[in-house]
Amino acid sequence: MTGLERDETLIAAARAALAGEPEGIRARMRIVAGDGRDTGVHFLPGGFDVVLCHGVLMHVEEPDALLAGLARMLAPGGLLSLLVRNGDAPALRPGLSGDWAGALAAFDATAPRPRLPRARTDADGETHARTGPGVRADRLADLTATLAGIGAPLHSWYGVRVFTDTAADGTEPPADLETLLAAEDRAGRTDPYRAVAGLLHLCGVRG
Prior knowledge:
- The protein is an alpha/beta fold.
- It has a single domain, classed as Vaccinia Virus protein VP39 (Rossmann fold, 3-Layer(aba) Sandwich).
- The protein is built from eight helices and ten strands.
- A four-stranded mixed β-sheet has the order 3-4-10-9. The protein has a two-stranded parallel ribbon with strand order 1-2.
- This is Methyltransferase domain-containing protein.
C-alpha cells in the first residue's frame, strides 16, 4: 500500500502512526511526499489496481488535473474510488439544521462546483456552520463526465451519510448501531435517497 501526501504535518502524523504498527504492516506500507497532480514524477503509468481519493477533492480548487493524475496510475480494469461532498443538494444540510437563510441561499447557488459551509461541533454536541469559506462540493453529473474523459468511466455510485449527516461528531454510537448502519446502507444504494446524501462515493473503472 502506498500513501501520497504533500502536507508535511500530515506526513509526519502518518509516519508516527505507522511506527506503532507491527513490522508486517510497516513492511507493506509506503508513504510518498508529493502532489497527486504530478504522479508521473513518482509512479509508472498503470502501476496500481486500486486508487483511493477520499475527502480530498473538497480541498482542491481545480481538481481536474488531480483526477487525471490519479487515473494515469490505474492498470487496465483498475478502480478509482472517490469520496466527495455532494453538490447536488446544498440546501438540505442547512435546512435540517434549522439554518433557513442558509438553505434559501443554497437554492440560489449556481457555481459549477458549489461551496458548502464547514461544520463545527460544540462541547454540548450541538453542530453549527462555521464562519469563513466553506469546502468545495462536486456534482454527480460533472464527475461522471470527468471520469469518462480521463478513461475511468463511472461504474457505480452511492450516497454516504443520508440520514446521519447532521449527527454531531464524537458522540457515542447508539444502541441500535447495526440497524442504523443497515438503514444507511440501504438508503445509500436507493433512489431518490442517495441523491441527497451528504457525501457521494463514486467508483470509476479504467477501460
